[in-house]
């Protein structure tokens, strides 16, 4: 892919999108589709923040030039030309990055790569908003990922051992709304947001974080760093993928026949198509679990008119 023209210095008003732009740069070669939508999110957000100040207008103009150049280079890519495919691509990529970090966390392997993956996953969920409102599940994943990244980073920085696996967090800690969730050292080392600066395990509710249902064992996404730094003290520096657990097929789906009184709306067809696109995107990452779940959702919707 041809190199993009560099951007001018980031105006102070756009501090909240600096990490999304950095994520875009990191993915220019790794995944240009992700890079494109990160820049699109930065563009849309920047326009809302300040589109009148001369330095901001100049920055946004150059960013628009990058977007147009990328769109020409990716003109035949369905993830760019079709929003449904683009949304599915981005959601699956973000989820894979989340699962990679979550599996490392559950296994007690704490290192910079997993911290970065948690935080980057949260940034990519921000980017999904270019397609519309986030699902409740995505909102919870974003909050949990950003909180986990800051918590583990600060534990390691202070010489403490982080608590592995899902734990409860305070519901009023609006981490995802904190523009300073990461400092200049990010994306490798996010810093603690002020809303949770006094982390105390004794004050945290026990059990899993409400609404987070993450199956352990999913493997890292393509191009996700899979090497554990030697300083972590882990005996083996290679992450071995754990066999996936395939979800049980609902037997009722095999016997379901669309009834004559089932009337599907255009929105139903669009949702079914979306589930099929999600399934196809999941298969690109060899994620059978997600593919089967989405195909079952599509089949149920088409045969019963209900989700």
TrEMBL record:
Residues 181-197 have a biased composition (Low complexity). Residues 198-211 have a biased composition (Polar residues). It is found in: Cytoplasm; Endosome membrane. GO terms for biological process: late endosome to vacuole transport via multivesicular body sorting pathway; protein transport. The keyword Transferase does not apply. Its main location: cytoplasm. The keyword Membrane applies. Keywords: Acetylation, Cytoplasm, Endosome, Membrane, Protein transport, Transport. It holds the Pfam family Vta1_C. Residues 16-158 form the Vta1/callose synthase N-terminal domain. It comes from the Eukaryota. Residues 266-303 form the Vta1 C-terminal domain. It is a peripheral membrane protein. GO terms for cellular component: cytosol; endosome membrane; multivesicular body; nucleoplasm. Residues 179-233 are annotated as: Disordered. Interacts with VPS4B. Interacts with CHMP1B. Interacts with CHMP2A; the interaction probably involves the open conformation of (polymerized) CHMP2A. Interacts with CHMP3. Interacts with CHMP5; the interaction involves soluble CHMP5. Interacts with IST1. Belongs to the VTA1 family. This is Vacuolar protein sorting-associated protein VTA1 homolog.
């Amino acid at each position: 892919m041809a190199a993009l023209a560099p951007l001018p210095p980031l105006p102070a008003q756009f501090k909240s999108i600096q990490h999304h732009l950095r994520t875009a740069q990191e993915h220019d070669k790794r995944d240009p589709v992700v890079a494109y939508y990160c820049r699109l999110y930065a563009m849309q957000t920047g326009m809302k923040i300040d589109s009148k100040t001369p330095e901001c207008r100049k920055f946004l103009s150059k960013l628009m030039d990058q977007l147009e150049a990328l769109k020409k280079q990716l003109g035949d890519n369905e993830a760019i030309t079709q929003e449904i495919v683009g949304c599915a691509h981005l959601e699956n990529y973000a989820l894979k990055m989340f699962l990679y970090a979550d599996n490392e966390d559950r296994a007690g392997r704490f290192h910079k790569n997993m911290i970065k993956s948690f935080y980057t996953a949260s940034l990519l969920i921000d980017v999904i908003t270019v397609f519309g409102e986030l699902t409740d599940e995505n909102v919870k994943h974003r909050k949990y990922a950003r909180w986990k990244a800051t918590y583990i980073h600060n534990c390691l920085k202070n010489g403490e051992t982080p608590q592995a696996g899902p734990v409860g967090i305070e519901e009023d800690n609006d981490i995802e709304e904190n523009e300073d969730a990461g400092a200049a050292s990010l994306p490798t080392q996010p810093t603690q947001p002020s809303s949770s600066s006094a982390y105390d395990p004794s004050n945290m509710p026990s059990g899993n974080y409400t609404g987070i249902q993450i199956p352990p064992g999913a493997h890292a996404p393509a191009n996700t760093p899979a090497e554990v730094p030697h300083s972590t003290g882990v005996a083996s520096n290679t992450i071995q993928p754990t066999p996936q657990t395939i979800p049980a097929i609902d037997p009722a789906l095999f016997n379901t026949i669309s009834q004559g009184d089932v009337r599907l709306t255009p929105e139903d067809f669009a949702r079914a198509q979306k589930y099929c696109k999600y399934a196809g995107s999941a298969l690109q990452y060899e994620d059978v679990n997600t593919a089967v779940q989405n195909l079952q959702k599509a089949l149920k919707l088409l045969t019963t008119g209900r989700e």
